[in-house]
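Recall from the previous chapter that SMILES is a line notation for molecules. Here it describes zinc ion.
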Amino acid sequence: MGPTARFFFALAFCAGLPAADSTAPAPKRELSIRVYNYTTSEPNLLLHARRQATEVLQKAGIHPRWEQCRTSDAESNKDSSCTRPVGPHLIQLRIHPREMAKKATKRSVEFGYAVPLTDSFGVIAGVYLDRTAELATSLGLDVHVVLGHTMAHEIGHLLLGSNSHARTGIMKPTWGDREIHLAKTGVLRFTEAQAERMQAQVAARLAHSPAAALLGPLGDAHPKTPN
Ligand SMILES: [Zn+2]
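With both inputs in hand, we obtain:
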């Protein structure tokens, strides 16, 4: 979610573009998403959030393949695929605790970030779990619902590139009552135009060989600092 995300007061909403139609046939575009969880959250919370994000992404024709990977040498990887080389085909999603969020940004209205690149494929995004959980609680929503949509929003930034906020749908930078209601009822989505761009982006990423990994032979490395 962008730096201007504010849920707490009424906003003027635009009718905007129609959201992607879940009944329309979409090409199957698989995207690997490697999750690094730096928090001590309940495993089930992240599992449910991943399911929520999956639901949103699949409606846009993007089929995530999640990998849960370790964040320290003391842990073991949850998935054997964690040792695969990284590259444009594989996005890193970092789940940060409160202290990491404070270091990264003091703006408590920021719930996540993405590093979309203009001249290459962005592969790093993150969400701030505690802020997201507090927001969900204040709205009377399940944490996994807000967390999952925030994850999908930040992954959307990676696939849509810079300046990818929109006037409607899940890529709106500022969510208000309408977006919260849509998220709660499972219909906060990417627009059709966004879905098409994301599918094309994933196809372009998959066209790159893992051998030509963007970040080099990180393999089993585990990032230690938030971006
Ligand atoms: Zn955003």
